[in-house]
Structures are given as C-alpha cells and as structure tokens.
Amino acid sequence: MNSRQKGKRGELDAAAFLSEQGFPARRGQQFAGSPDTPDVLCPLLKHVHFEIKRTQRTDLYGWIKQAVTDAGEKMPVVLHRKNNAEWLAIIRAPDLLALLRDTNSLRVERKQEQREANQTRPSTSEGTEP
Known about the structure:
alpha+beta; 3 helices
C-alpha cells in the first residue's frame, strides 16, 4: 500500500472515530481537494483544524508545526494512532488551557443558571391543604 492510500485510510479511520464519539466527521480532501483543507472536517468543531497521522513513526513537533501552518485562525490538533493503539490528540499547551478555561467557564455559568432557576421557582409544600 502506498503512502497516499495509507493516509486516506488513516483519515477515514479518524473520521469514523470522531463520528463514533458524537462528532460527525468526513475526510476533507475528498470534497474540497485543496492542499490546505484539513485531513478531516467536523462541522460541530469548525474552529479545529485536524491533522491526521496514522503511522508507527513519531514526529510530534513536525506534525504540530504542519498543523499550525495549515490551520490559519483555527485551533491545530493532530490526531495520531499507531497500530493496535488508541487515538491520541496532540495539542499545544496554551490551546489546551484555553479549552479548559472555556469548559470551566461553561460549568460555572450552568451552575449559576441552575441556582437562579431554583431560587425563582415557587416552592410547594407537601401536606398543606389549598
């Protein structure tokens, strides 16, 4: 199998993985076809540029550099999987921290909304007659 076929297989595998996790995805090149198209397109994660690496060889810094170059304004993420191994996400530390901050902010907002909703609900007492 040549490297182009292996790349296609890895991209299909990654798209299937994302879809199984609740993020429907498809190969990027098959539809757009331009060199700067991400390997995988995921409409629910439009702000993420996915670079897919399905190889035994590891070049983390080279891969993330390629993803950063191709990502433009999007967040570069490399999805990597070796044979008989799970998928790993390679992301720059500042991007990870930004995601964690956003996630934490959403949790805090939801808790605040729940507290406010609970305070505005009329309380009902059981056992009282109308």
